[in-house]
Amino acid sequence: MTDEDSTFDMLAVLGDPVRRRLYRYVAASPEEVGRDAVAEAAGISRSLAAFHLDKLVEAGLLTVSFRRLSGRTGPGAGRPAKLYRRAEGEHAVSLPPRSYEAVGRLLAEVLENAGLDRELQAAARATGAAHPDACTDDMEAVLRARGYEPYREGETLRLRNCPFHALATEFPALICGMNLALIEGLAPEEWSPAMDPCPGGCCVMLSKKKSH
């Protein structure tokens, strides 16, 4: 079986609408979630949620860990809960096959070697500001539409997903600088983007300016 066949099989698991709903809920959660929380969010029974969650684990889309949610240890603390989170890695299908990632890597290498960081950031900031939804009040919707998966931490917006993860891993200074500039262009006046990486997420966070 080719890598493409494996990816097709993996993504076929999401053909079931209930399974897609569960995957989206787990993927959007900033922390690991248990079966009870997933079942309640989806409006289905715990046993049905467990069945679909385990199918997603078998397909490599979710991973599992075990932890006592009460925080207690020792005798009488109860069994550890089975918790789910989105698996690492990326899955993409292109028909016919394309190699945009290779082109992106080549362009990033050329820009980095030529020292064109500032020019790239200026272009990214202008692109963000020119986006039709830029500077609207619903910053979370704008970010979500671009693949960032925002979530709240008080008055702070964290971004659980980096849309440029593969390139950011190879060219962190170049791509993270571009990413920050892009979000600066997208952000309305009351939001202040800054570099503050979160584990497994994006390098940028947004905080509300004190004047707002």
Automatic annotation (TrEMBL):
InterPro entries xrefs: ArsR-like_HTH (IPR011991), HTH_ArsR_DNA-bd_dom (IPR001845), WH-like_DNA-bd_sf (IPR036388), WH_DNA-bd_sf (IPR036390)
SUPFAM superfamilies attached to this UniProt entry: Winged helix' DNA-binding domain
Record protein name field: Helix-turn-helix domain-containing protein
Protein source organism: Streptomyces achromogenes
Residue stretches making up the HTH arsR-type domain: 9-112
Source taxon at top rank: Bacteria
Leader sequence residues: none
Pfam family, one: HTH_20
